[in-house]
Here is the input.
Amino acid sequence: GAATRMVWEPCPAGSFNPTTGCKSSAACESCPIGTSSAMRGAESIETCAPCRPGTVAAEERSEICEPCAQGYYQNAVGATECIRCAAGKFCPKGSSLALGAQCDPGTYANLTDADGDPECFACPAGLSCAGGGAAPAVCSPGTAAKPARDKCAMCGVGTHQPYAGSASCIPCDPGFFCPEGSSAQLPASCPAGFYNGNASTTLESLDDCVGCALGSFCTGGAAQPTACAPGSIAPSANMSACELCPKGHYAASRTACEVCEAGTYA
Here is the structure.
């Protein structure tokens, strides 16, 4: 019969074989880690080129060296892993060094910029951007930020914000009060004997709670002062209820009792 013709197969990319007469692919030796070779049928380890800075080969028999991902860099030749970019630095994809991003406060660096020269963009609403190479930070509850801000501002007195990453604060509802930096509304609740001195506005702080005057009582909460009813008095301030005059006495005013005169009783 006809003779069988043998066809040689080249070693795959990422390997080489310096020996002649080999009968299987097992004779192909792998390029070491930190190197790569795109050549098929290579005969020498010299074809395994060390990875240039900014790229790595973590495994043997690599066809190409992979670029470092954004946020990482590698300044050495023939490396097997990338180095995390330090805080405040900028490392685009394939970086061979950590760059010092110089964005102004209220802006942040584009971390996908391939040319290594970071562009700076206005900070989105609900985030703060300290500048330099810092990444945007989400505003916490009780704070908010409009676009292009370098820090989140605390919600002012009379407003609140329960959610993170917000652009503005929400006015406090009637019957509630919100101190500065509130993440929730608090019930408008002055203690008994006190009342909200700003009767036309919502209670913004317990400092707005005013002591009840003589001759009246205050039940607390959102209630305003109530004058003592005839026959009862409030002889001191900050009273939560009026008192009845004792037997044989009458309320000469809303603040004091006097003894009944001869011929009268109470």
